[in-house]
Design a protein that fits this description.
The chain has 8 helices and 16 strands. With 279 residues, it is α/β, with parallel strands linked by helices. It has one domain: Metallo-beta-lactamase, Chain A. It starts with a strand and ends with a strand.
Amino acid sequence: MRVGRYDVEIFSDGIFRLDGGAMFGIVPKVLWEKAKPADGLNRVAMDMSCLLIRDGQGHVVVVETGAGPKLNDKQKRTFGIDDPPALLDELAKRGVRTSDVTLVVNTHLHFDHAGGNTHRDGERVVASFPRAAYAIQRLEWHDAVHANERTRGSYLADDYEPLEAAGKLELIDDRSEILPGLHLERVQGHTRGTQTVRISEGGATLYFSSDFMPDRHHLPLPWIPAFDLFPLDTLEAKRTILPRAAEERWVVAFTHDVPRFGRIEQVEGRYRFSEIADR
């Protein structure tokens, strides 16, 4: 997908599974299961989508790093992860080595978005992308480092704490145009420090929604995960962003949908997602 100076590709680090009731919050199972069937443990399968953004001038940006290679067997069973992480293989297919990456963006620091930030090198945990800065919202960093009883199950310190020791953090306060036309914008809802990625170049916009709207099934306004710490803020963000995305014909991609690009339309008062060709 070409957006101005940027070439953008989307791919999956792999599949993981979470409780369907938690993913759809107050929506009854009889409704959400029509859209996303559950397995015998009431879990729904979700891709861990990542973006690769290149400008041909030396900037190589990876958005999200999936669950990564550090989970133990019990964690893999719990989250229904059957296959090895695909991130590095997917980058290699596109001719990208770990040393080529200049910037990593985590929309937030939950294990399924930041697990590939680091890897084990013998007894040490080190950055997976040795040249890259890692762009994270300052509030998200604070809340991950100071996780509480409600949040700590989603944060794994080895995914992000080694980055601080290596001097690789680039902490963002609310919003930043981190490269020309490449915007990081905080959207409180899923966490305080969740950020979205928006590329606006040459009259076109591409938008990566982060977990405030994890897949196309969460387009209806009240379909909000129980995982969201600030669900009413999620609701207000959807009320603001969805009409704009439809009116301005943004290209949209989701963090936990099948990796693809599409557009959002409003038809008879309802939002729907239509896939478009990656070109």
